[in-house]
Every structure is written in C-alpha cells, then in structure tokens.
Amino acid sequence: MTLKYSGLVRRIEVTGPTREGALARAAVHRYLVRLRLDRVAVSIVLCSDAAIRRLNARHRGVDAATDVLSFPAASVPGGLRQLGDLVVSLPTTRRRARELGVSFEAELRLYLAHGLLHLLGHDHAKPRDASRMAAAERTLLAAPGLVTRSLGATRPSRSRRR
After folding, report:
1. 150 is in which domain, residue-wise?
2. Residue 113: which CATH number?
3. Using an 8 Å Cβ cutoff, are 151 and 133 in contact?
C-alpha cells in the first residue's frame, strides 16, 4: 500500500493480520512524518515467536525469540529509498504488554519505533549511542522507549504509553 500525504510518498508494506497490520502501518507512517522522511519505503512483517526465533538465530546467532528485528536495506539509486524490514513478534508483543500492564497497541508502537530507529542507523550498544537512541525514541513516542527500559527503568510509567 502506498500512502500519499501533502505530496510526499511513503510506502509501508505490512505482512500479517489485518487489524495489527493497520496499527503498524499507521504508527510507522506517523514516525516517518515526525522524522520528516519522504520518498521512503519500509516493510513490516508481523509474525510468530517461532518465526522471529529462526531469524534471530540465523542473523544474530541468538537462538531465542525476541520482540523486534531490523534489517536495513542497501541503498538503491532513484525512486523511493528502501529503509529496510522490521519484523515484530506478535505473541511477544502481547505477552510483554500484559506483563507491563500496558496496551498491546502501545507495546507494538514501541517496538516499531525502536526498530525503525535501528533501520536509520541508531544503536544502543555503547552508553553514548544508547543516550542518543533513547532521545530519538522519546521524539517518536513522545515518551521513554525501549532503550530507557533496558537501561534500568523496569516498569514504564502509565503516561508514557498511550
């Protein structure tokens, strides 16, 4: 599906259940607008724990399910700039949302923001990079994100995740 707003083009393709796919597409579109990115394309795959576990093992050497994986695309000349692929485990999203007492939608938006920032080159392996990525997550979410959570905030505030 190609979404056009104000003459700008952002292509967001989603593979997965219709309801969750619509939520994912809307969230990523909102993030691209906030980042002022146009003429870009992003693919989103909403999958099972088993599927994301296989990808995690193959590409990261970690034989475990995870919440979100990002696969940046190689740059291509002309046309839309392909940012890459985001893969989100729906069962993990539901489980973590229940554990944290937040909505499924809020948790999904969080994973999509985090993954999109990885596609754009952000990382959180080093403290300095983690601070930058946490700030970028706050910009997208208007609240703390996954990096903040992993740096010690074990339970997000209710106001952060609407």
Report:
1. 2-160
2. 3.40.390.30
3. no
Distance of CA 13 to the CA centre of its chain: 13
Within the chain, residue ranges assigned H as helices are 18-34, 49-60, 90-100, 104-119, 127-141, 146-150
Tokens of 116: 């999109």
Helix (H, G, I), strand (E, B), or coil: what is residue 47? strand
CA 1 – CA 35 distance, rounded (Å): 20
Rg value, the chain, Cα: 15
DSSP assignment of 73-118 equals PPP-SSSSEEEEEEEEEHHHHHHHHHHHT--HHHHHHHHHHHHHHH
pTM: 0.84
Helix (H) or strand (E) holding 10: strand 8-15
| Digit-coded pLDDT (tens) for 142-161 | 876 777 776 654 333 333 33
Burial category of 1 from C-beta neighbours within 10 Å (exposed 0-12, middle 13-18, buried 19 and up) = exposed
Q: Order of strands, edge to edge, in the sheet holding 8-15?
A: 2-5, 8-15, 40-47, 81-89, 68-72
Count how many domains the chain has.
Answer: 1
